[in-house]
Amino acid sequence: MSGRPFERELFIPGPAIKLIRKGSQIDMKKIIALVIVLALAAAAYGFIRNKNSVEAQPLIDFAEITRGDIENVISCTGTIEPVRTVAVGTEVSGKIDKIFVDFNDNVKKGQVLAVLDTTFLQSSIRDANASIVRADAQYRKAEKDYEHNKELFDQHYVSELELLSFETTMKSNFASLQSAQSALERAQFNLDHALICSPISGKVINRNVEEGQTVAASFSTPTLFQIAEDLSKIQILAAVDESDIGQIKEGQEVRFSVESYFDKKFQGAVREVRLQPKMVSNVVTYTVVVDAENKEGLLLPGMTATLDFVVEKKENVLLVPSSALRIQPTEEMLAAMRRNWTGRQRPGDSTGQRQRDPNARRQGDPNTQRQWDPSSGEGRRSGPPDGNGNWGGRGQRENMARLCTKDDQGNYSAIPVRKGITDGLMTEILENDRVHEGQKVMSSVIQVAEKQNNSNGPRLDMRVMGRALGR
């Protein structure tokens, strides 16, 4: 609709304009009649337009202040792992002759898990024993030769150089005997380690070999089995964002759940916060280790857990939906709130206006209290308002908010409140004399735009008036 509807809606023909301009050619009665008709037409147009417009009222939802428990938590995900896992390998190369355990078997420390083929290892033992016998015989002969020639040397029948040769042969054979003994020890070690035993008591969670498979331990120890020491206790490696890691402390309470048992909550505690950061897609996280009990055996290695680190917890406090602290009232509501707030009676002030020291205000005294603004829920000076909406000390402005109410007579009012902890959906509000359990507050305000009928307003044809004026 145009800002000047009469210029668009009214049709004034040229003869009527000329008739008006030629005042000397018409009498005064016709001019007065024309003015009256125009005034009546304008009034009728305004009446019909207002009748066609529909005044829209805002849609208001209300919520109730309740009393209950609330927690501030940090949520993240992590992977369940055994507290201690040992990878069992072999130090001896060979073929797997027999496997005695399978997946999920419980084993004891020292229990035989598998055996390698010992045919080659036993032949190595026999060969080492033969080498020892040969080296020992050679050493004994060399020792006798040295002793005999030593007596001849003492009688000056053998030169010193000849004696030195016999001594060298004896010592060389003694070294060969020691080498043969070491070879026997190695062969015995290999034979002993052909029996692959469990180093701990626990449960077999992985097996990487089959009977008849050849394993080579020449360069690196192959992993044959993986054993978890005690699955009645597990640990969770949680990835916590760098923005939240400062709120995680050792011993902190943790709740978590897994998708397999979505309706069950498990408890744990923070054991340590690892200082080594991890960066994935430019997101920095830190690993937090959480200890938990698993006596029922429901939690399995590799499960993904959703964790809630309890940062702060309060019980039996006043709670309000967080949306009630963020609503945007209409201009009419805000005007009514300002009027109701200005009209409130303050203790010791019969005028309803708070007395302030102008000198303190000019000097910027931080202890000067100023009026709380009900339209924004904030004050000009940082700090919480008291029961009269006055602001106190600095540093608490971010904790202040506003609750909006509507009484049975339709009067709107704003209540200053101080916020506590929040879980996102509900927020704690600190108690004061203007809020109580069961009180109704606005939780949402939807402003509906004014609707206008499509029908056009009255259209006045000035040609009719021209004929009425005798033209």
UniProtKB/TrEMBL annotation:
Transmembrane segments annotated in the record for this chain: 31-48
Source domain of life: Bacteria
Chain ranges of the Multidrug resistance protein MdtA-like barrel-sandwich hybrid domain: 84-222
Classification via Pfam families: Beta-barrel_RND_2, BSH_RND, HH_MFP_RND
UniProt xrefs under SUPFAM superfamilies: HlyD-like secretion proteins (SSF111369)
Region of interest (Disordered), residue spans: 340-396
GO MF term list: efflux transmembrane transporter activity
Gene Ontology cellular-component terms listed: efflux pump complex
Keywords, in A-Z order: Membrane, Transmembrane, Transmembrane helix
UniProt-listed InterPro entries: Beta-barrel_RND_2, MdtA-like_BSH, MdtA-like_HH, RND_pump_MFP
Bias (Polar residues): 365-374
Comp. bias intervals (Basic and acidic residues): 354-364
Annotated ranges, domain CusB-like beta-barrel: 237-309
Domain Multidrug resistance protein MdtA-like alpha-helical hairpin: 126-193
Family the entry assigns: Belongs to the membrane fusion protein (MFP) (TC 8.A.1) family.
Protein name (database record): Uncharacterized protein
